[in-house]
Amino acid sequence: LAIACARYLTSHLSLECLIFSHVWGIEVFTTSEVEAINGTSVKLTCTFSSKEPVSLQTASVSWDFRSITIFYYQEIPYPIDKGLFKGHVQWSGDMKRKDASITLNNVHPGFNGTYFCQVANPPDVHANIGETVLRVVDKVTLSEISLLVAIIGGSCVVILVFLGIFVAVRMYKKRNKEKDIEMRVEEYRNKQPTVW
C-alpha cells in the first residue's frame, strides 16, 4: 500500500493517498505471568483497545502456544479439536467489551509455557502481540497439609511443655528459698536471749 501510494504521489502529486496509508493500531493487554494448580482451570486474560468500533462480524482473536494455534474466534469460538489442548480451551471473552480472554480447563504440566494473544479489528489490524507465561504447579495434598500441621502443632506442644517445666522449677526454687529464709529467721529469733 505504501509503495502504491508513493507511485501515485510521484505521478499525480496528490496528498489524498496519505489518508489511506495511515496505520491504525490495536493495543493488546495481557497478564505477564499466571500460576495455576495442576488439575484446575485458569483464565488467560487478554483485553484490547482499538480506535475502530468493534465489528462482531470481522473482528478476530487468535491464541497460540509454541507456534500452534490453540484457539480462534471470529463471530463464534473455534477451539482446537486435536492434540494436547483438545477439550481444554474455552472462550471466556466478550468482543463487545474488548475482551479476548480464554480459559484453560484441567491444566497439567504440559501446559507450562508462553501463550500469545493476537487481535484484529479491520481495518484496525496492526497490533502488538500479548504474551502470558503459564506456570502449572503441583497442588498440596491433604496428607501434606496434615503432616505440616502435625509438625507445627507438635513443635508448639514440646515448646509449651519445656516452658511449663522451666516456670514450675523456677517457682519451686523460689518457694524453697523463701521457706529457707523464714526458717533461718525463726532460728535466729529462737537463739536470741529473752530480755525481761
TrEMBL record:
Sorted alphabetically, the Gene Ontology cellular component annotations on this record are:
plasma membrane
Residue span, Ig-like domain: 26-138
Localisation per UniProt entry = Membrane
Listed Gene3D superfamilies? Immunoglobulins
Which membrane topology describes this protein? Single-pass type I membrane protein
Tell me where it mainly resides: membrane
Q: Name one GO biological process term.
A: cell-cell adhesion
Q: Which PROSITE patterns match?
A: IG_LIKE (PS50835)
SUPFAM superfamilies linked to this entry: Immunoglobulin
| Listed Pfam families | V-set (PF07686)
- Alphabetized UniProt keyword annotations: Disulfide bond, Glycoprotein, Immunoglobulin domain, Membrane, Signal, Transmembrane, Transmembrane helix
* Recorded superkingdom: Eukaryota
Q: Where are the transmembrane segments?
A: 145-169
Q: Which family does it belong to?
A: Belongs to the myelin P0 protein family.
Q: What is this protein called?
A: Ig-like domain-containing protein
- Organism encoding this protein: Poecilia reticulata
